[in-house]
Amino acid sequence: MTLKAKLLKALILGAPASGKGTISSRIVKKYKIEHVSSGDKLRDHIQNQTDLGKEVKKYLNDGKLVPDDLMIKFMTTELKKVDNKPWLLDGFPRTVGQADALWKIQPVDVVLNLVVPFDVIIDRVKNRWVHLPSGRVYNIGFNTPKVAGKDDVTNENLVQRPDDRPEAVMQRLQIYDDITRPVINYYKEKGILKEFEGRTSDEIWPKVVAFLDPLFDKK
Ligand code: G5P
Ligand code: MG
């Protein structure tokens, strides 16, 4: 593994349900790096009814962004836990304020941006089921669980996300357009953004591998 890959700090960006979780899980499996998903971690807090969980629940359910100050404090703590490992950050940063804060804590090496048409996204969230404790995601017809409504690994129940209701999805896509798109330009200007276009994760995945493989070449 190259020296750089040993401590690679990478981000994955993309609209809600563009496949960040799906592509991330393939990346962490293939390249053995840590996956830090802000959404998964927040849902975990909500599930466990922690103080933070109670504070953020309304934002998530309504498809709105958690305020920057809270989010930056939370993710700073989370990133300290994986400081000495290569990681892939998913879902953070989502505002230019968050991107600035992250750059001060830890400049990132590469940013992968998934470009998936909105019509595909709206269609796919209807069929999404998640296993909350692990963050594993399923989609009926794409990666259907072996037993309907059950996680493949633990056999525990799968649930649908409250923010996958059509009105919350529209809200999330609107916020993405207005507030998160500038984050793409932020990294473009730094010269570290790489875009991957496609209508399915299987179409995008080989392009991601072709980009990452050279970074992880055994030397
Ligand atoms: P999250 O959790 O970061 P989103 O909205 O950015 O939520 P999401 O919904 O988790 O993103 P994803 O990870 O991009 O989507 O996509 P995914 O889960 O892999 O795929 C979506 C579905 O499509 C799955 O069912 C999958 O199986 C399926 N799928 C994938 N590929 C294909 C395919 O090729 N074909 C088909 N048919 N299906 C496919 O954030 C949630 C909330 O947390 C808060 C906010 O409230 C946010 O709304 N939050 C923050 N707030 C402020 N700042 C931050 N930094 C925040 N981070 C989180
Ligand atoms: Mg996700």
When the domains are counted, the total is: 1
Gyration radius (Cα, Å) is 17 Å
By CATH reckoning, the class would read: Alpha Beta
User: What is the typical, i.e. mean, pLDDT?
Assistant: 93
Please estimate the helix content.
40-55%
SS summary, helix count: 9
By CATH, the architecture is named: 3-Layer(aba) Sandwich
Ligands bound here?
A: P1-(5'-adenosyl)-P5-(5'-guanosyl) pentaphosphate, magnesium ion
Low-confidence stretches: none
* Share in β-strands: 15-25%
What is the 3D shape? Answer: globular
Strand order of the largest sheet: 2-3-1-4-7
Q: Look at the structure and name the CATH superfamily.
A: P-loop containing nucleotide triphosphate hydrolases
Calculate the terminal CA-CA distance, rounded to whole Å: 6 Å
Number of strands: 7
CATH topology: Rossmann fold
Provide the structure class: alpha/beta
H/E series, N to C?
HEHEHHHEHEHEEHEH
Characterize the biggest β-sheet: 5 strands, parallel
